[in-house]
Amino acid sequence: MAAAHQILAMSWARVLLCGVLLAGTAGAHDLFLKFDSWFLSPDSEAEVDLFNGTFGRSDNVITRDRMLDVSIVRADGQREHPDESQWRDVGQRTRLGFRTGGSGTYLLGVSTKARMIEMTGEEFDGYLEHDGVLDVLEARRGAGTLGTAARERYSKHVKAIAQVGPVTTGAALEALGYPIEIVPLSNPYELQVGDFLPIRVEERGQPLAGQLVYASHGAHHVHDESGNHVEAFRGRTDESGQVAIPLEAAGPWYVRLIRMVPCPEEQDVDYESNWATLTFEMRPAESAPGPWLWIAVPVVLLVLAIGLVFRRRAG
Description:
Layout: H1 2-20, E1 30-34, E2 39-40, E3 45-53, E4 67-73, E5 79-80, E6 87-90, E7 93-99, E8 104-112, E9 115-119, H2 121-131, H3 134-143, E10 150-164, E11 180-184, E12 196-203, E13 206-207, E14 212-217, E15 233-236, E16 242-246, E17 251-262, E18 271-282, H4 291-314
Parallel strand pairs: 2-10, 10-18
Antiparallel strand pairs: 1-3, 3-7, 4-5, 4-8, 6-7, 8-10, 9-10, 11-12, 12-13, 12-16, 14-15, 14-17, 17-18
Protein backbone atom coordinates (compact mmCIF):
# COMPACT_ATOMS: atom_id res chain seq x y z
CA MET A 1 0.00 0.00 0.00
CA ALA A 2 2.84 2.41 0.88
CA ALA A 3 4.55 1.66 -2.44
CA ALA A 4 1.31 2.41 -4.31
CA HIS A 5 0.97 5.75 -2.53
CA GLN A 6 4.59 6.61 -3.43
CA ILE A 7 4.04 5.79 -7.10
CA LEU A 8 0.82 7.86 -7.14
CA ALA A 9 2.57 10.80 -5.47
CA MET A 10 5.44 10.73 -7.97
CA SER A 11 3.00 10.51 -10.89
CA TRP A 12 1.09 13.56 -9.68
CA ALA A 13 4.39 15.41 -9.18
CA ARG A 14 5.31 14.80 -12.81
CA VAL A 15 1.90 15.95 -14.03
CA LEU A 16 2.17 19.11 -11.97
CA LEU A 17 5.69 19.72 -13.23
CA CYS A 18 4.66 19.55 -16.86
CA GLY A 19 1.72 21.87 -16.26
CA VAL A 20 3.19 24.39 -13.88
CA LEU A 21 6.57 24.79 -15.52
CA LEU A 22 5.17 24.94 -19.02
CA ALA A 23 4.85 28.72 -19.09
CA GLY A 24 8.50 29.67 -18.89
CA THR A 25 9.71 28.42 -15.53
CA ALA A 26 13.36 28.60 -16.43
CA GLY A 27 13.36 30.89 -19.40
CA ALA A 28 12.81 30.28 -23.09
CA HIS A 29 16.24 28.90 -23.94
CA ASP A 30 17.27 26.42 -21.25
CA LEU A 31 18.40 22.89 -22.07
CA PHE A 32 17.55 19.95 -19.79
CA LEU A 33 18.12 16.21 -19.74
CA LYS A 34 14.76 14.83 -18.68
CA PHE A 35 13.53 11.30 -17.93
CA ASP A 36 9.93 10.19 -17.54
CA SER A 37 11.25 8.84 -14.26
CA TRP A 38 14.80 9.22 -12.96
CA PHE A 39 14.41 5.82 -11.24
CA LEU A 40 15.49 3.10 -13.67
CA SER A 41 15.69 -0.68 -13.57
CA PRO A 42 19.03 -2.50 -13.82
CA ASP A 43 19.93 -4.25 -17.08
CA SER A 44 17.10 -2.67 -19.04
CA GLU A 45 16.49 -0.27 -21.93
CA ALA A 46 16.19 3.38 -20.95
CA GLU A 47 15.54 6.71 -22.69
CA VAL A 48 16.28 10.32 -21.81
CA ASP A 49 15.13 13.44 -23.66
CA LEU A 50 16.83 16.75 -24.33
CA PHE A 51 14.32 19.53 -23.73
CA ASN A 52 15.38 22.75 -25.44
CA GLY A 53 13.03 25.43 -24.13
CA THR A 54 11.58 24.94 -20.65
CA PHE A 55 11.45 21.99 -18.28
CA GLY A 56 7.90 21.32 -19.39
CA ARG A 57 8.18 21.91 -23.14
CA SER A 58 10.83 21.45 -25.82
CA ASP A 59 10.64 23.97 -28.65
CA ASN A 60 13.12 22.35 -31.04
CA VAL A 61 15.55 19.48 -31.40
CA ILE A 62 19.32 19.63 -30.96
CA THR A 63 21.14 18.50 -34.08
CA ARG A 64 23.94 16.01 -33.55
CA ASP A 65 26.59 18.30 -35.03
CA ARG A 66 26.01 20.72 -32.13
CA MET A 67 26.97 18.12 -29.52
CA LEU A 68 30.59 18.44 -28.41
CA ASP A 69 30.28 15.78 -25.72
CA VAL A 70 27.74 13.16 -24.75
CA SER A 71 28.68 11.11 -21.69
CA ILE A 72 27.23 8.39 -19.50
CA VAL A 73 29.05 7.66 -16.23
CA ARG A 74 27.94 4.28 -14.93
CA ALA A 75 27.78 2.98 -11.38
CA ASP A 76 31.38 1.74 -11.50
CA GLY A 77 32.65 5.17 -12.63
CA GLN A 78 33.25 4.10 -16.22
CA ARG A 79 32.59 7.00 -18.62
CA GLU A 80 31.35 6.13 -22.07
CA HIS A 81 30.23 8.13 -25.09
CA PRO A 82 27.07 6.87 -26.82
CA ASP A 83 27.15 6.52 -30.59
CA GLU A 84 25.33 9.12 -32.64
CA SER A 85 23.01 6.37 -33.91
CA GLN A 86 21.53 6.08 -30.38
CA TRP A 87 19.87 9.49 -30.82
CA ARG A 88 16.58 10.12 -32.60
CA ASP A 89 14.16 13.00 -32.87
CA VAL A 90 10.71 12.62 -31.32
CA GLY A 91 8.64 15.66 -32.20
CA GLN A 92 10.56 18.63 -30.80
CA ARG A 93 12.56 16.43 -28.41
CA THR A 94 15.95 14.83 -28.96
CA ARG A 95 15.95 11.33 -27.44
CA LEU A 96 18.89 9.16 -26.39
CA GLY A 97 18.42 5.43 -25.93
CA PHE A 98 20.82 3.39 -23.84
CA ARG A 99 20.93 0.24 -21.75
CA THR A 100 21.51 0.29 -18.01
CA GLY A 101 23.85 -2.14 -16.32
CA GLY A 102 24.21 -2.95 -12.66
CA SER A 103 22.54 -1.12 -9.81
CA GLY A 104 23.96 2.28 -8.90
CA THR A 105 23.78 6.02 -9.51
CA TYR A 106 24.35 7.08 -13.13
CA LEU A 107 25.39 10.49 -14.47
CA LEU A 108 24.53 11.70 -17.98
CA GLY A 109 25.90 14.83 -19.62
CA VAL A 110 25.66 16.79 -22.88
CA SER A 111 27.80 19.79 -23.84
CA THR A 112 27.07 21.83 -26.97
CA LYS A 113 29.16 23.91 -29.34
CA ALA A 114 28.96 27.69 -29.11
CA ARG A 115 26.49 29.60 -31.26
CA MET A 116 25.93 33.28 -31.96
CA ILE A 117 22.74 35.27 -31.52
CA GLU A 118 22.03 38.97 -32.06
CA MET A 119 19.27 40.83 -30.23
CA THR A 120 17.92 44.33 -30.06
CA GLY A 121 18.52 46.18 -26.83
CA GLU A 122 14.92 45.68 -25.74
CA GLU A 123 15.07 41.96 -26.50
CA PHE A 124 18.40 41.48 -24.73
CA ASP A 125 17.43 43.41 -21.58
CA GLY A 126 14.12 41.53 -21.41
CA TYR A 127 15.89 38.20 -21.74
CA LEU A 128 18.37 39.08 -18.98
CA GLU A 129 15.51 39.92 -16.63
CA HIS A 130 13.34 36.94 -17.57
CA ASP A 131 16.15 34.38 -17.31
CA GLY A 132 17.65 35.85 -14.15
CA VAL A 133 20.97 37.14 -15.51
CA LEU A 134 20.61 40.02 -13.07
CA ASP A 135 24.29 40.92 -12.59
CA VAL A 136 24.72 41.69 -16.29
CA LEU A 137 21.42 43.60 -16.32
CA GLU A 138 22.57 45.75 -13.40
CA ALA A 139 25.96 46.29 -15.01
CA ARG A 140 24.26 47.57 -18.16
CA ARG A 141 22.05 49.81 -16.09
CA GLY A 142 25.07 51.20 -14.21
CA ALA A 143 27.00 51.77 -17.42
CA GLY A 144 24.06 53.46 -19.11
CA THR A 145 23.95 50.84 -21.88
CA LEU A 146 20.42 49.56 -21.34
CA GLY A 147 18.63 49.43 -24.66
CA THR A 148 21.74 48.83 -26.75
CA ALA A 149 21.82 45.84 -29.09
CA ALA A 150 23.94 42.84 -28.10
CA ARG A 151 25.74 39.96 -29.82
CA GLU A 152 26.00 36.89 -27.60
CA ARG A 153 28.02 33.70 -28.00
CA TYR A 154 26.37 30.93 -25.99
CA SER A 155 26.75 27.23 -25.25
CA LYS A 156 24.92 24.81 -22.97
CA HIS A 157 26.22 22.13 -20.61
CA VAL A 158 23.62 19.88 -18.99
CA LYS A 159 23.60 16.90 -16.66
CA ALA A 160 21.11 14.43 -15.18
CA ILE A 161 21.48 12.04 -12.26
CA ALA A 162 19.51 8.80 -12.53
CA GLN A 163 19.17 6.07 -9.92
CA VAL A 164 19.34 2.52 -11.27
CA GLY A 165 18.09 -0.07 -8.78
CA PRO A 166 18.52 0.33 -5.02
CA VAL A 167 22.30 0.76 -4.63
CA THR A 168 23.67 4.32 -4.60
CA THR A 169 27.18 5.01 -5.90
CA GLY A 170 29.47 8.00 -6.38
CA ALA A 171 28.94 8.77 -10.08
CA ALA A 172 26.63 11.66 -9.20
CA LEU A 173 29.57 13.57 -7.73
CA GLU A 174 31.69 13.38 -10.90
CA ALA A 175 32.75 16.53 -12.76
CA LEU A 176 32.68 16.11 -16.53
CA GLY A 177 35.08 18.95 -17.32
CA TYR A 178 32.54 21.24 -19.00
CA PRO A 179 33.21 25.02 -19.28
CA ILE A 180 30.55 25.60 -16.60
CA GLU A 181 29.20 22.81 -14.46
CA ILE A 182 26.96 22.11 -11.48
CA VAL A 183 28.64 19.45 -9.32
CA PRO A 184 26.60 17.99 -6.44
CA LEU A 185 28.56 17.36 -3.26
CA SER A 186 26.05 14.78 -2.00
CA ASN A 187 24.15 12.09 -3.84
CA PRO A 188 20.51 13.31 -4.03
CA TYR A 189 19.34 9.68 -3.83
CA GLU A 190 20.88 9.43 -0.37
CA LEU A 191 18.89 12.49 0.78
CA GLN A 192 15.29 12.93 1.85
CA VAL A 193 12.73 15.66 1.38
CA GLY A 194 13.61 18.35 3.90
CA ASP A 195 17.37 17.89 3.46
CA PHE A 196 19.72 20.28 1.65
CA LEU A 197 21.62 19.37 -1.50
CA PRO A 198 25.04 21.07 -1.46
CA ILE A 199 26.42 21.88 -4.90
CA ARG A 200 29.58 23.48 -6.24
CA VAL A 201 29.65 25.55 -9.41
CA GLU A 202 32.84 25.06 -11.39
CA GLU A 203 34.04 27.25 -14.24
CA ARG A 204 36.67 25.38 -16.24
CA GLY A 205 37.40 23.22 -13.23
CA GLN A 206 37.69 26.04 -10.69
CA PRO A 207 35.09 27.06 -8.04
CA LEU A 208 33.03 30.05 -9.14
CA ALA A 209 32.08 32.48 -6.37
CA GLY A 210 29.12 34.85 -6.47
CA GLN A 211 27.18 33.00 -9.17
CA LEU A 212 23.39 33.22 -9.11
CA VAL A 213 21.82 29.75 -8.98
CA TYR A 214 18.14 28.85 -9.39
CA ALA A 215 16.28 25.63 -8.57
CA SER A 216 12.67 24.47 -8.67
CA HIS A 217 10.31 21.51 -8.67
CA GLY A 218 6.84 20.56 -9.83
CA ALA A 219 4.95 21.32 -6.63
CA HIS A 220 5.99 24.99 -6.61
CA HIS A 221 3.11 27.31 -7.59
CA VAL A 222 4.32 30.89 -7.04
CA HIS A 223 4.02 33.70 -9.59
CA ASP A 224 5.12 37.33 -9.57
CA GLU A 225 2.97 40.38 -10.31
CA SER A 226 3.47 39.89 -14.06
CA GLY A 227 2.27 36.32 -13.91
CA ASN A 228 5.72 34.81 -14.48
CA HIS A 229 6.58 31.67 -12.56
CA VAL A 230 8.95 32.25 -9.63
CA GLU A 231 11.36 29.41 -8.94
CA ALA A 232 11.52 27.76 -5.53
CA PHE A 233 15.10 28.79 -4.81
CA ARG A 234 17.50 31.56 -5.72
CA GLY A 235 20.91 31.90 -4.14
CA ARG A 236 24.55 32.78 -4.73
CA THR A 237 27.60 30.61 -4.44
CA ASP A 238 30.00 31.43 -1.62
CA GLU A 239 33.76 31.95 -1.86
CA SER A 240 34.26 28.23 -2.41
CA GLY A 241 31.69 28.16 -5.21
CA GLN A 242 29.14 26.35 -3.07
CA VAL A 243 25.47 26.81 -2.24
CA ALA A 244 22.92 24.50 -0.59
CA ILE A 245 19.55 23.79 -2.25
CA PRO A 246 16.64 23.12 0.17
CA LEU A 247 14.85 20.02 -1.08
CA GLU A 248 11.36 20.96 0.03
CA ALA A 249 9.29 18.59 -2.09
CA ALA A 250 9.28 15.22 -3.84
CA GLY A 251 9.31 14.77 -7.60
CA PRO A 252 11.53 16.00 -10.44
CA TRP A 253 13.95 18.84 -9.69
CA TYR A 254 16.23 21.05 -11.72
CA VAL A 255 19.08 23.39 -10.82
CA ARG A 256 20.14 25.98 -13.38
CA LEU A 257 22.43 28.94 -13.96
CA ILE A 258 23.71 31.22 -16.71
CA ARG A 259 27.29 32.44 -16.49
CA MET A 260 27.62 35.52 -18.70
CA VAL A 261 30.66 37.77 -19.09
CA PRO A 262 31.37 40.75 -21.37
CA CYS A 263 33.90 40.35 -24.19
CA PRO A 264 35.41 43.85 -24.59
CA GLU A 265 38.45 42.60 -26.50
CA GLU A 266 36.45 40.76 -29.18
CA GLN A 267 35.30 42.74 -32.17
CA ASP A 268 32.24 40.66 -33.11
CA VAL A 269 31.05 39.48 -29.68
CA ASP A 270 29.66 41.56 -26.84
CA TYR A 271 28.94 38.78 -24.32
CA GLU A 272 29.74 35.12 -23.85
CA SER A 273 27.39 32.88 -21.87
CA ASN A 274 27.66 29.31 -20.65
CA TRP A 275 24.45 27.70 -19.44
CA ALA A 276 24.29 24.78 -17.02
CA THR A 277 21.47 22.61 -15.68
CA LEU A 278 21.25 19.57 -13.44
CA THR A 279 18.17 17.36 -13.06
CA PHE A 280 17.22 14.58 -10.63
CA GLU A 281 14.18 13.27 -8.78
CA MET A 282 13.37 13.17 -5.08
CA ARG A 283 11.41 10.29 -3.61
CA PRO A 284 8.38 11.12 -1.47
CA ALA A 285 9.14 11.31 2.22
CA GLU A 286 8.34 8.19 4.21
CA SER A 287 4.97 8.63 5.85
CA ALA A 288 5.14 9.07 9.61
CA PRO A 289 2.89 6.81 11.72
CA GLY A 290 -0.53 8.38 12.22
CA PRO A 291 -1.83 9.18 15.72
CA TRP A 292 -4.16 6.20 15.53
CA LEU A 293 -1.13 3.91 15.52
CA TRP A 294 0.08 5.17 18.89
CA ILE A 295 -3.39 4.35 20.32
CA ALA A 296 -3.91 1.05 18.51
CA VAL A 297 -0.60 -0.56 19.49
CA PRO A 298 -1.07 -0.25 23.29
CA VAL A 299 -4.71 -1.41 23.00
CA VAL A 300 -3.68 -4.51 21.03
CA LEU A 301 -0.93 -5.29 23.53
CA LEU A 302 -3.38 -4.88 26.42
CA VAL A 303 -5.91 -7.23 24.80
CA LEU A 304 -3.19 -9.82 24.18
CA ALA A 305 -2.01 -9.57 27.79
CA ILE A 306 -5.56 -10.00 29.15
CA GLY A 307 -6.11 -12.97 26.88
CA LEU A 308 -2.88 -14.56 28.06
CA VAL A 309 -3.91 -14.14 31.74
CA PHE A 310 -7.30 -15.80 31.19
CA ARG A 311 -5.70 -18.69 29.28
CA ARG A 312 -3.32 -19.36 32.16
CA ARG A 313 -6.16 -19.28 34.68
CA ALA A 314 -8.24 -21.63 32.54
CA GLY A 315 -5.34 -24.07 32.38
